[in-house]
Structure formats: structure tokens, C-alpha cells
Amino acid sequence: MSLTADLLMGFSLFAFVTSVTPGPNNTMLLASGVNFGFTRSIPHILGISCGFFVMVLAVGFGLGALFEAYPVLYSVLRYVGAAYLLYLAWRIATSGPASNDPDRKGKPLGYWAAAAFQWVNPKAWVMAVGAISTYTPLQDYFTNVLVISAVFALINAPSVGVWAGFGSMLRDVLRNPRWLRLFNVGMALLLVASLYPILVEHYPT
């Protein structure tokens, strides 16, 4: 079987749904949009998509098989990811009031940090493994992995960007420091809740 138009269309729907639905990336982008605005969140958006592109390539070219052969490596990665998610949750919970001043205390997650985060993001691993195992035909495998990775990244960027955009729309609503603090604490708790699959599930399988 080759990568037909129908298969690519089905994969595009998979990429959109998995990218736009809630998860650690989108929770952080929603909070970033509220606290820093859409423009300052763009490096975060691009870091997510580029980091995920590299991850899908790596899974397609054998990293997933390495984790299957040596499960302890993935276990270590999961718990490193859990620790980093707790740190990010703390950063969100303690974010200051929304401001247009780029010099105010605090700054959004940068491009490289967002790209690196994909490697400890459990939802990203599920998405990458699903893309390769379900939608990548063995015929012309090398080319198909490149196409799947590129299409996923192109769909992912605007899909996750919606969350930053929605957050920026809420900035005026959340000018009140009390409401902003409640929002940030709520987002931090949601991020902590996303640790559940890291602690009780086993990826990749």
C-alpha cells in the first residue's frame, strides 16, 4: 500500500484532531496567550511544530523501536518529563498580571524550550507513534515518513496557535489580577492533571 490521497486525507484529519484537542502544549499556549499575547507566543508555537516534526521523523526512522527494545529508556524519559511539567505548572501558576510591556517580569516559553519539551510530552509521543504506525505505508517508506512528518507539522502549527489566539482574546477580561491569578492556577492544575498518563500508562506500545 502506498500513501494515497484518501490515506493522506484521513491522516490530515487525525493530525488536526490530535493537535487541536487539549493537552500540555495547548494548555501552556492558552496561558501564554493570556499572559504575554499572541505575538510573543509565536516562538512557542513554532517550537512546538518544529520539535514535533523532528520527533515524528525520529520515531519513523527507528527511535520508537529503540524504546520497545529498551523500555527503561522511556521510563526515564517519562519521569524527567513529569518533573519538567511540574516546573512549567509552577511557572504558569506564578505568572504576573497581563501587560503589554515586554520588559515586565516573566517571559513566554521560547522556541528551543518548546521544541525540546516535545520529547517529554506524553501526548506528543502518542501522536507521533500513531502517525507512523497507522498512516505510514511500508512501500516507499522513507519518502512517506518525510511526507507524514511535514504534513503533521504544517497542520499542527495553526491548530495549536488557535489556543494562543484564544488566550490573547481573554487578556482584557483577565486584567483583574485576582481573576488572572485564578486562571493561571487553573491552567497549572490542568497541566499537573496531564501527568496522569505519564504515571499510569505505558508509551509507546
Description:
The protein is mainly α and 205 residues long. It has one domain (23-99, 107-200). It contains 9 helices and no strands. The model has no long low-confidence stretch (mean pLDDT 83). This is LysE family translocator. It is a multi-pass membrane protein. The chain crosses the membrane at residues 46-67, 76-93, 145-167, 179-199. It is found in: Cell membrane.
Number of domains: 1
Helix content: over 70%
The largest β sheet comes out as: none
Strand content: under 5%
The overall pLDDT average reads 83
Instruction: Give start-end ranges of low-pLDDT stretches.
Output: none
End-to-end Cα distance? 23 Å
Order of helices and strands: HHHHHHHHH
Structural class by sheet pairing and helices: mainly alpha
Overall shape: it is globular
Strand elements, count: 0
Helix count, DSSP H or I runs of 4 or more residues: 9
Q: Calculate Rg over CA atoms.
A: 18 Å
Subcellular location: Cell membrane
GO molecular function: amino acid transmembrane transporter activity
InterPro entries: LeuE-type
Transmembrane segments: 46-67, 76-93, 145-167, 179-199
